[in-house]
Amino acid sequence: MEPAFVPGLRLSERYYREAVEPLLDKHFPALRHTAARIGGGSEVLGFDTGRSADHDWGPGLQLFLAPEDTENTEKHAAAITGMLAEELPKTFLGYPTHFVPGGGHVRHMRLTDGPVHHRVEVTELGGWLEGHLGFDPRRSIAASDWLATPTQTLAEVTAGSVFHDGLGELVPARENLRWYPDDVWRHVLACQWQRVSQEEAFVGRCGEVGDELGSAVVAARLVRDLMRLCLLMARRYPPYGKWLGSAFTQLPCAKDLPLTEVLSATSWRDRERHLARVYETAGALHNELGLTKPVDPGTRPYHDRPFQVLHAERFAEALTASVTDPEVAALPRLGAVDQYLDSTDLLDDRERTRAAADAVLRR
Asked: In degrees rounded to 5, what are phi and psi of residue 5?
């Protein structure tokens, strides 16, 4: 029988408290460590279900050690990993603690009679942060660091849970990443409004020439951009595609935005009508933030063409004008790296992502 589903974060915390921590206290009583479940995985963002258990899910966590302990691997990191392999229970709350490789980099829970190939990652905090983010948030964070980091990655490090911060460094590091600095936030918002402005007239233009498919594709792109915009206005890092809708529907404004109607419309005029409501609501949300002087949220014709649009560039221009940091104000209106790059393979490669962002920021 399959065990009753336990949300992954709760499972990880109980695993630490009831299985891992007692073994650490027994064998390494003086060892300072931090225990957490952060990084990749649907459970970190709180979106896991029973379906998630089929790969890269189950009892697991990170154990972060001080640099002097991880450097002496025989004494600490390797010894802890080996000890846990020998002494962890074979199952926890009905779930196997042993993981076997699947296709690619994924792993699956399996029962075993021997030592467990567990999912407790024992590592040094600074190296993990550098590897995951491309920079160390325990130090000063430059605007270029913020903009070179996908919002999914920022969500992975600031979500999840810290079960024990014996090193006293992970909680402050996560707090440093909790949200963009004010001027960087304004810049990212401006760039998101700019994306909307670039395609808002195409829903009608495609439809006018009989291209309902093209109109629907443009509308879907706009819906995605508007969802990300609303999350950014709500100070929530937008997750990647699989969880974007789940995160968006948690926003209080979601019920007021007829995005489903936009996507289900079969004519461009209906799409445009529903989008107009979305634009006006999003514009009102912008004004509620008080980041700029109020911008008229009403829709209007697209110049002398009969397409109803917001002219979203007006919001972008107001936000850019409100930036006070000269370095941020001088940036090209492109924003964070995942506002202009959309390749999963690239965005998952920290070195290449930062190189691409550096090239863009240096023009």
From this structure: -65, 130
